[in-house]
Specification:
The structure holds two protein chains of two kinds.
Chain A lengths: L4 H23 L3 H22 L3 H4 L1 H20 L4 H26 L7 H18 L5 H23 L4 H20 L2 H4 L5 E2 L11 H4 L5 H29 L1 H11 L1 H6 L4 H27 L1 E2 L6 H14 L4 H25 L8 H19 L3 H16 L3
Antiparallel strand pairs in A: 1-2
Helix pairs in contact in A: 1-2, 2-4, 4-11, 5-11, 5-12, 5-14, 5-15, 5-16, 6-7, 6-8, 6-14, 7-14, 11-12, 11-14, 12-14, 15-16, 15-17, 15-18, 16-17, 16-18
Chain B lengths: L7 E12 L2 E12 L3 E5 L6 H9 L6 E6 L4 E2 L3 H4 L4 E3 L12 H7 L9 H5 L3 H20 L15 H13 L5 E5 L7 H14 L4 E5 L3 H7 L2 E6 L2 E6 L1 H6 L1 H11 L1
Parallel strand pairs in B: 3-8, 3-9, 6-7, 7-8
Antiparallel strand pairs in B: 1-2, 1-4, 4-5, 9-10
The chains are: A mainly alpha, B alpha/beta.
């Protein structure tokens, strides 16, 4: 019997796993590091085997999607071990933002609705997380995140139901109203939201003691905690992206694209427009809230001034730059967000434009606006959309 | 050789539609049964498109009823049509411009239950299986209409005649008992018209076909019955032969041509 290629791949994987385990145990200073290293290599080898198996992409798309997610998360988690504290904090911030962008990418890109209120939905999650943590100091992080998701979904549903009757600029107007009113809503629940000063989390997020072995390899507490937060953010982001990729590929995801492309024809094939629009709105708010909750966790505090209307505009700009309606576009937007400040500071320092060091925050808006204009003029599909378009047209030109 | 029209799939009963005082349709009644091809004709502004839109629920009738006797329903909303076995193509091609041809055809099978939101979100096996089945059926449908090699293209990258076939493929994906074609002949060349006529005759075996059309050379030899509208009223009904002899029709419509 002929051994087929996938069987061969599997045996190579198994061999790689055994070898990596042996290697890491002989290298490792502690058992825990060795376990971590062999787990990393095992996941990497399994992922590589799954990617390179031909035909699996069409026969088992979920397996390939899961492998892509797990392998990527695996590699980034491994990298955080070597990163300095500020890089890890940037990474966590970017990851949280990319979740928010993913929700908006789905709403605007897939279902064709515009929201100017996702900064406020992010705030809903951020405050839900903080309020929950202040009332249940011992509850695990994941419970707080779930509370934030549910809060975001509920507020999204509340606003989404009337929004089904609104189109284009009117829907944008309604979400804009929510974004502008958000600060006032917060201050009218002073006893819950802490007013203008916001809320502190009762305790900083630290790795649980049974995991400490992985995190405290002789480094400072700051390094340990920033790595822990980055790792939480990366895992949550991986899960969020995996499920969103499922949704994009599903019947529901297709229904969204049909509504966006041609709502008359979408109705004729049996898509309910109001239902589709509400679902998209709720998903986008829930994702925004999850991103907001992670931000609270990263900052260890939440302040109402963070979730201003300006943030909603930044979010919309970021997904346009990254590539609206695409999944990688959300990731690109998150990276742009995380590093824009550092890059701008670096530019101003290099060019000597900013001797006092206080110009960066003002330049931020200018450079962001410029980036947005350049994107709209030269790559209206965003970075990811343009890349995909170029790749597709190129493939079509190459003779098969 | 048309079967006897005994069980109507679609029946307009004394339907009237006004647009702010303008009578678009006045007391219009006609029906379509399984196995027959009915042509809806009339001069510009006669109310053909309005009649189509009333049947689809895009326009609510001010009087009368739209019944779907075989499905036991009346006055359906557009999003309920496909489930009741009624498929409609739109004027032009009406495809989803940013979805591939294959995805366009898969869209036609949207009414098949394959799980809701969470099935998709969690990628549960039953949803994945249903999507795979839908994909295969859509490919088979494209193959049946001879346009399978276009599956990965975008609608903007295929010839117009092909796009019209894709639109029909999409309509057929919900296993319709009634197929409504809005100006199927427009924009097609001689050879494509012949192909299209053959296709409609083939489809007629399992369903009723109602079509709105301007091209008389295409309609006359194809249909079993004609419904002629003028100024929102039915002025004649019958076989192409009968309608051709009808004085009112000749005066209102065909006479203009000669």
């Amino acid at each position: 019997m002929v051994v087929n290629s996938s069987q061969r791949r599997m045996s190579i994987t198994a061999m790689a796993v055994v070898l990596s385990a042996i290697a890491s145990f002989s290298f490792g200073s502690s058992t825990r590091v060795a376990v971590a290293l062999s787990a990393f290599l095992t996941l990497l080898a399994t992922g590589a085997a799954i990617f390179t198996t031909p035909g699996l992409r069409s026969s088992h798309p979920v397996v390939v999607r899961a492998a892509l997610t797990i392998t990527t998360v695996d590699v980034v988690l491994f990298a955080t071990y070597f990163f300095p504290a500020n890089t890890n904090t940037n990474l966590a911030t970017g990851a949280a933002m990319s979740i928010v962008l993913l929700g908006l990418s789905f709403l605007t890109g897939a279902s064709g609705q515009i929201s100017l209120g996702n900064g406020a939905f992010m705030g809903v999650g951020a405050f839900a997380m903080a309020i929950w943590a202040n009332h249940h100091a011992t509850s695990p992080i994941v419970v707080g995140l779930l509370v934030a998701i549910v809060s975001g979904a509920l507020v999204g549903l509340l606003l989404g139901l009337p929004a089904t009757r609104l189109r284009g600029p009117y829907l944008a107007g309604m979400t804009l109203a929510f974004a502008v009113a958000f600060a006032a809503i917060l201050s009218s629940f002073n006893s819950w939201t802490g007013g203008d000063s916001g809320l502190q989390l009762p305790t900083a997020a630290t790795p649980p003691h049974w995991l400490l072995g992985f995190f405290d390899s002789g480094t400072s507490l700051l390094t340990t905690n920033s790595m822990w937060l980055a790792d939480i953010a990366i895992v949550v982001t991986g899960v969020a992206f995996f499920f969103m990729a499922n949704l994009f590929a599903s019947r529901t995801g297709r229904a969204m694209r049909l509504i966006r492309d041609n709502d008359v024809a979408a109705e004729l094939v049996g898509v309910s427009l109001p239902r589709g629009r509400v679902v998209a709105f709720v998903v986008s708010s829930a994702y925004a809230a999850l991103g907001g909750a992670l931000s609270t966790l990263i900052d260890n505090a939440v302040s109402p001034s963070t979730y201003s209307f300006a943030l909603s505009i930044t979010i919309l700009s970021l997904i346009v730059i990254g590539g609206i309606g695409t999944i990688p576009g959300a990731l690109i937007g998150g990276i742009v967000y995380a590093y824009s400040n550092s890059v701008i500071t670096w530019i101003t320092n290099q060019t000597g434009l900013n001797p006092q060091g206080n110009l960066a925050s003002q330049l931020n808006g200018i450079i962001f606006g410029g980036l947005l204009i350049v994107t709209m003029l030269f790559a209206p599909l965003g970075i990811s959309g343009t890349a995909r378009h170029l790749w597709r047209t190129r493939r079509r030109r190459t003779p098969r | 050789m048309a079967p006897v029209p005994d069980s109507p799939i679609l029946a307009l009963e004394n339907v009237s539609v006004h647009f702010e005082g303008l009578k678009a349709l006045n007391d219009v009644s006609f029906s379509v049964s399984s196995g027959e091809i009915v042509g809806l004709i009339g001069p510009n502004g006669a109310g053909k498109t309005t009649a189509f839109n009333v049947a689809c629920g895009f326009v609510k009738p001010n009087g009368g009823r739209v019944r779907f006797p075989s499905a036991g329903r009346s006055n359906l909303k557009p999003s309920q049509l496909a489930r009741a076995g009624v498929a409609r193509t739109l004027q032009g091609v009406g495809l989803f411009p940013h979805c591939s041809v294959l995805e366009n055809v898969m869209a036609g099978g949207h009414v098949r239950r394959s799980g809701g939101f969470f099935t998709g979100f969690l990628s549960l096996p039953n949803g994945v299986r249903a999507e795979r089945g839908l994909r295969n059926d859509a490919l088979a449908m494209l193959d049946r209409l001879g346009v399978a090699e276009m599956a990965d293209r975008l609608p903007s990258a295929i010839p117009y005649g092909t796009a019209k076939k894709v639109a029909v493929a999409r309509a057929l994906m919900c296993d319709p008992t009634l197929l409504m074609l809005d100006e199927p002949a427009s924009g097609l060349d001689e050879a494509e018209l012949e192909e299209f006529a053959a296709l409609i005759l083939e489809l007629r075996v399992t369903m009723g076909v109602l079509l709105v059309e301007h091209d008389m050379e295409f309609v006359m030899p194809l249909v079993d019955r004609l419904v002629v509208l003028n100024f929102g009223e039915v002025i004649a009904m019958g076989t192409p032969g009968e309608v051709r002899e009808n004085d009112a029709v000749v005066a209102a419509y065909l006479g203009v041509d000669e």
